[in-house]
Write a structure and sequence with these properties.
With about 70 residues, this protein is mainly α. It has helices at about 5-20, 25-45, 50-74.
């Protein structure tokens, strides 16, 4: 596995959230494409893609929290 695999999945979650500041359709499309990719990868490689999805979800949660704090207090 690549050394920065986890960081890339966290970054996917963050990018999905930040894309919502541009247009509401971008995070929907981005999340759907990421999930389709991970399910397909798990189906062919059986590499426990749920861990990758969880890492993206953590990045998503952190970015949503940061965005809410930014918009509320700043």
């Amino acid at each position: 596995m690549p050394k920065y695999r986890n960081a890339a999945h966290y970054l996917v979650g963050i990018i999905i959230v930040l894309s919502s500041t541009i247009d509401w359709t971008l995070p929907v499309i981005g999340a759907a494409l990421f999930l389709a990719y991970e399910v397909n990868e798990d189906w062919h490689l059986s590499d426990q893609a749920f861990r990758d999805i969880l890492e993206a979800a953590i990045g998503f949660f952190v970015a949503v929290s940061g965005l809410l704090i930014w918009r509320t207090f700043l």
